[in-house]
Design brief:
By secondary structure, the chain is mostly helical. It has five helices and two strands, in the order αααααββ.
Length: about 160
Protein backbone atom coordinates (compact mmCIF):
# COMPACT_ATOMS: atom_id res chain seq x y z
CA UNK A 1 0.00 0.00 0.00
CA UNK A 2 1.53 3.36 -0.99
CA UNK A 3 2.16 5.81 1.82
CA UNK A 4 0.40 9.15 1.81
CA UNK A 5 2.68 12.09 1.06
CA UNK A 6 2.46 15.14 3.27
CA UNK A 7 3.74 18.43 1.96
CA UNK A 8 4.52 21.68 3.73
CA UNK A 9 4.90 24.92 1.82
CA UNK A 10 6.15 28.32 2.88
CA UNK A 11 4.73 31.22 0.93
CA UNK A 12 5.33 34.90 1.55
CA UNK A 13 2.14 36.70 2.55
CA UNK A 14 1.25 40.15 1.40
CA UNK A 15 -0.76 41.30 4.37
CA UNK A 16 -1.81 44.69 5.67
CA UNK A 17 -0.68 45.89 9.08
CA UNK A 18 -4.09 45.00 10.53
CA UNK A 19 -3.94 41.50 9.02
CA UNK A 20 -0.45 40.98 10.45
CA UNK A 21 -1.73 42.03 13.87
CA UNK A 22 -4.53 39.45 13.63
CA UNK A 23 -1.95 36.79 12.72
CA UNK A 24 0.13 37.73 15.75
CA UNK A 25 -2.98 37.65 17.97
CA UNK A 26 -3.79 34.16 16.70
CA UNK A 27 -0.24 32.95 17.35
CA UNK A 28 -0.17 34.54 20.83
CA UNK A 29 -3.52 33.01 21.82
CA UNK A 30 -2.39 29.57 20.63
CA UNK A 31 0.87 29.89 22.55
CA UNK A 32 -0.96 30.94 25.71
CA UNK A 33 -3.18 27.87 25.38
CA UNK A 34 -0.17 25.58 24.86
CA UNK A 35 1.69 27.06 27.85
CA UNK A 36 -1.26 26.47 30.16
CA UNK A 37 -1.84 23.03 28.69
CA UNK A 38 1.79 22.02 29.18
CA UNK A 39 1.46 22.45 32.95
CA UNK A 40 -1.62 20.20 33.01
CA UNK A 41 0.02 17.53 30.85
CA UNK A 42 3.30 17.58 32.81
CA UNK A 43 1.50 17.30 36.18
CA UNK A 44 -0.77 14.46 34.99
CA UNK A 45 1.76 12.62 32.80
CA UNK A 46 1.66 9.25 34.55
CA UNK A 47 -2.14 9.04 34.44
CA UNK A 48 -2.35 10.32 30.86
CA UNK A 49 0.19 7.75 29.66
CA UNK A 50 -2.07 4.93 30.86
CA UNK A 51 -5.20 6.27 29.14
CA UNK A 52 -6.42 4.47 26.00
CA UNK A 53 -6.54 7.85 24.23
CA UNK A 54 -4.11 10.52 25.39
CA UNK A 55 -5.99 13.32 23.66
CA UNK A 56 -9.38 12.28 25.03
CA UNK A 57 -7.94 12.02 28.55
CA UNK A 58 -6.51 15.55 28.35
CA UNK A 59 -9.78 16.88 26.98
CA UNK A 60 -11.63 15.35 29.96
CA UNK A 61 -9.34 17.37 32.24
CA UNK A 62 -9.84 20.72 30.50
CA UNK A 63 -12.92 20.76 28.26
CA UNK A 64 -16.53 20.84 29.54
CA UNK A 65 -19.15 18.81 27.65
CA UNK A 66 -22.60 17.42 28.44
CA UNK A 67 -21.03 14.21 29.75
CA UNK A 68 -18.19 16.12 31.45
CA UNK A 69 -19.75 19.37 32.76
CA UNK A 70 -17.07 20.06 35.40
CA UNK A 71 -13.56 19.31 34.17
CA UNK A 72 -10.83 19.49 36.81
CA UNK A 73 -9.17 22.50 35.16
CA UNK A 74 -12.02 24.95 34.54
CA UNK A 75 -9.52 27.71 33.69
CA UNK A 76 -9.50 26.61 30.05
CA UNK A 77 -13.26 27.02 29.60
CA UNK A 78 -13.08 30.51 31.10
CA UNK A 79 -9.88 31.79 29.46
CA UNK A 80 -10.14 30.01 26.08
CA UNK A 81 -13.91 30.03 25.65
CA UNK A 82 -14.09 29.76 21.85
CA UNK A 83 -10.95 27.72 21.23
CA UNK A 84 -11.61 25.44 18.21
CA UNK A 85 -11.50 21.69 18.82
CA UNK A 86 -9.09 21.01 15.93
CA UNK A 87 -6.59 23.50 17.36
CA UNK A 88 -7.10 22.12 20.87
CA UNK A 89 -6.28 18.61 19.64
CA UNK A 90 -3.25 19.80 17.67
CA UNK A 91 -2.01 21.63 20.79
CA UNK A 92 -2.49 18.49 22.91
CA UNK A 93 -0.35 16.45 20.51
CA UNK A 94 2.34 19.13 20.36
CA UNK A 95 2.48 19.49 24.14
CA UNK A 96 2.57 15.70 24.51
CA UNK A 97 5.75 15.69 22.42
CA UNK A 98 7.28 18.55 24.42
CA UNK A 99 6.61 16.89 27.78
CA UNK A 100 7.75 13.47 26.55
CA UNK A 101 11.02 14.95 25.27
CA UNK A 102 11.66 16.80 28.52
CA UNK A 103 10.96 13.74 30.68
CA UNK A 104 13.24 11.56 28.51
CA UNK A 105 16.09 14.08 28.80
CA UNK A 106 15.51 14.39 32.55
CA UNK A 107 15.56 10.59 33.06
CA UNK A 108 18.79 10.38 31.08
CA UNK A 109 20.32 13.14 33.20
CA UNK A 110 19.25 11.35 36.40
CA UNK A 111 20.79 8.09 35.21
CA UNK A 112 24.15 9.82 34.75
CA UNK A 113 24.14 10.12 30.97
CA UNK A 114 25.53 13.65 30.59
CA UNK A 115 27.75 15.52 28.20
CA UNK A 116 29.74 16.94 31.17
CA UNK A 117 30.06 15.76 34.76
CA UNK A 118 28.81 19.09 36.07
CA UNK A 119 25.90 19.36 33.60
CA UNK A 120 22.76 20.88 35.10
CA UNK A 121 19.44 19.05 34.81
CA UNK A 122 17.29 19.92 31.80
CA UNK A 123 14.56 22.47 32.35
CA UNK A 124 11.05 22.24 31.04
CA UNK A 125 10.41 25.07 28.60
CA UNK A 126 6.70 25.87 28.54
CA UNK A 127 7.39 28.92 26.37
CA UNK A 128 8.62 27.06 23.30
CA UNK A 129 7.83 28.50 19.87
CA UNK A 130 4.41 27.00 19.26
CA UNK A 131 2.63 27.84 16.01
CA UNK A 132 -0.98 27.01 15.23
CA UNK A 133 -1.56 24.37 12.60
CA UNK A 134 -3.31 25.96 9.63
CA UNK A 135 -5.52 23.10 8.48
CA UNK A 136 -6.64 23.47 4.90
CA UNK A 137 -10.40 23.90 4.71
CA UNK A 138 -10.76 24.85 8.38
CA UNK A 139 -8.26 27.64 9.01
CA UNK A 140 -7.04 28.38 5.50
CA UNK A 141 -8.86 28.33 2.19
CA UNK A 142 -7.27 28.92 -1.21
CA UNK A 143 -8.82 30.19 -4.40
CA UNK A 144 -8.83 28.01 -7.54
CA UNK A 145 -5.38 29.08 -8.79
CA UNK A 146 -3.74 29.30 -5.32
CA UNK A 147 -3.01 33.02 -5.59
CA UNK A 148 -5.20 34.08 -2.66
CA UNK A 149 -5.55 32.54 0.78
CA UNK A 150 -8.27 33.29 3.30
CA UNK A 151 -7.21 32.69 6.91
CA UNK A 152 -9.42 32.22 9.94
CA UNK A 153 -7.75 34.33 12.64
CA UNK A 154 -8.36 35.36 16.27
CA UNK A 155 -9.65 38.92 16.55
CA UNK A 156 -9.81 38.99 20.35
CA UNK A 157 -13.39 37.75 20.53
CA UNK A 158 -13.77 35.06 17.87
Amino acid sequence: MPSKMIRTDKWPLQATLQQRQLMQNTRDEYRAFCRALSVVVLNNWATLQQAPSFSAAVERLIHPTKKNPSPRHHYFAQRFYKFPSYLRRAAIEFVKGQVSSYLTRYREWQSGYRSRRDAKPPRFNAVAGYYPVMYRGQLVKFDADFTTASLKLWNGKE
